[in-house]
Design brief:
By secondary structure, the protein is of the alpha/beta class. 32% of the residues lie in helices and 18% in strands. It has 2 domains: 7-100; 119-207, 3-Layer(aba) Sandwich (Rossmann fold). It contains 8 helices and 9 strands. The longest helix has 16 residues, at 27-42. The chain is elongated.
């Protein structure tokens, strides 16, 4: 049985709330990072901490109030409540968190950016519940953007995309969200459960529905 928290200590941590995610859908961590300022603004005085697996900490670099899972015991002394998000095939855990908190997902303020490289990154690899693109879907997308004059490159590195690509197309992933928040033209191919969240966060971007996609 845990020891009770002294009142003096509770006063220091009562407004600190931690959201943890340790799963394999690492774009959830990017979403939490992008949404955290808005959540804190909605609940004046509240500080949101984010905790993730050690190998995902690179997604939170230069961020305050972040912890690796290996430091969870230290974190427990700094916050009053720890909420762990669990993977689901039925609903999106980040979107669910917003709904249960009565928060309408914001349209994020995205920096204006124009790159005229005529290079299109195609992100094909999904992590369940996000489905990877099929060969036929890949061909349809390549044809679509080649007709627009783009050179389509499949699954380039994130660093290359951010530096020199004009368009990013693909399934829900870290690279898709990192591109969208930097102002690149980003097109979601909705093969998972996060289309509503993506549309809310980045309303100026688009979703692509392909003729051979089913049950999306």
């Amino acid at each position: 049985m845990p020891l009770p928290t002294p009142l003096k200590k509770y006063k220091l941590v009562k407004d600190n709330y931690c959201i943890c995610y340790y799963g394999i859908n690492k774009e959830y961590i990017v979403q939490l990072r992008l949404l955290r300022p808005f959540i804190e603004k909605q609940f004046e005085g509240l500080s949101i901490y984010i905790c993730c697996s050690d190998d995902s900490m690179y997604l939170l670099r230069e961020q305050k109030n972040v912890f690796a899972k290996s430091r969870i015991n230290e974190l427990r002394d700094r916050v009053s409540y720890i909420r762990t998000l669990e993977d689901s095939t039925d609903s999106h855990p980040v979107e669910d968190l917003l709904k249960e908190s009565g928060i309408l997902c914001p349209a994020l303020k995205i920096p204006s950016r124009e790159i005229r490289s005529k290079k299109c990154a195609l992100l094909t690899n999904g992590v369940g519940p996000v489905r990877s693109l099929t060969g036929k879907q890949i061909s349809l997308i390549v044809n679509k953007f080649e007709k627009e004059g783009f050179r389509v490159i499949i699954n380039p590195k994130i660093e290359e995309i951010i530096e020199d690509f004009e368009v990013v197309v693909g399934v829900e992933s870290v690279a898709l969200y990192e591109s969208a928040c930097r102002g690149l033209r980003t097109c979601l191919v909705p093969t998972g459960i996060g289309k509503n969240l993506f549309d809310s966060m980045f309303p100026s971007n688009e979703a692509i529905r392909l003729e051979d996609q089913v049950n999306i």
